[in-house]
Amino acid sequence: MNPMNLFIESGIWGVIILGMGMLNLLIILAQIFLIRRVNVLPLAWSGVIAVVFCGMLGTVAGLVTMFDAVASASPEMKQQLLAAGASMSMSATALGLMIATVQVVLVGVVSCLIANMSVRQ
After folding, report:
1. DSSP of 22-72, one letter per residue?
2. Is 114 exposed, middle or buried, given 0-12, 13-18 or 19+ CB atoms closer than 10 A?
3. Which residues touch 48 (CB under 8 Å, ≥6 apart)?
4. Average pLDDT value over all residues in the chain
5. Which of 21, 34, 105, 108 has the highest local Cβ count within 10 Å?
6. 10: which DSSP letter?
7. Are residues 9 and 95 in contact, defined by beta-carbon separation less than 8 angstroms?
């Protein structure tokens, strides 16, 4: 499973998911530099959840594409449109879950680093 293929196949949802993932990564990095002054980790957790929800929204968009294909396409085109909708649907889900998984690990590591710094001071 190549992440670049997932990004391409998920279409606009891939762009949205990746953009939200990058924004959340910046929030996590900001927490490292703001250590004691501001706690933005709850915002980072919200970003992780938002990435998963965008992946799920991409899934719904792919399913709508599939149902539109069944409803309005000619018999010759139905199979091709169903395959395209299923591909977008599963790709958006997989991309959202992959990015969210990496971010969960990063938020956990940063939380542990901050907790260790607080104990030492």
Report:
1. HHHHHHHHHHHHTTTT---HHHHHHHHHHHHHHHHHHHHHHHHHHHHHHHH
2. middle
3. 24, 100, 103, 104, 107
4. 79
5. 21
6. T
7. no
State the Cα–Cα distance between residues 52 and 64, nearest whole angstrom: 19
- Cα–Cα distance measured from residue 61 to residue 65, given in angstroms and rounded to the nearest whole number: 6
Q: How many residues does the chain have?
A: 121
Per-residue confidence (pLDDT) for residue 44, from 0 to 100: 78
Give residues with Cβ within 8 angstroms of 50, minimum separation 6.
20, 24
pLDDT digits (tens, 9 = 90+) for 72-110: 888 888 888 888 888 888 888 888 888 888 888 888 888
pLDDT of amino acid 92? 85
In the predicted structure, residue 4 carries a pLDDT above the cut 70: no
The C-alpha angle 86, 9, 69, rounded to 5 degrees, equals 35
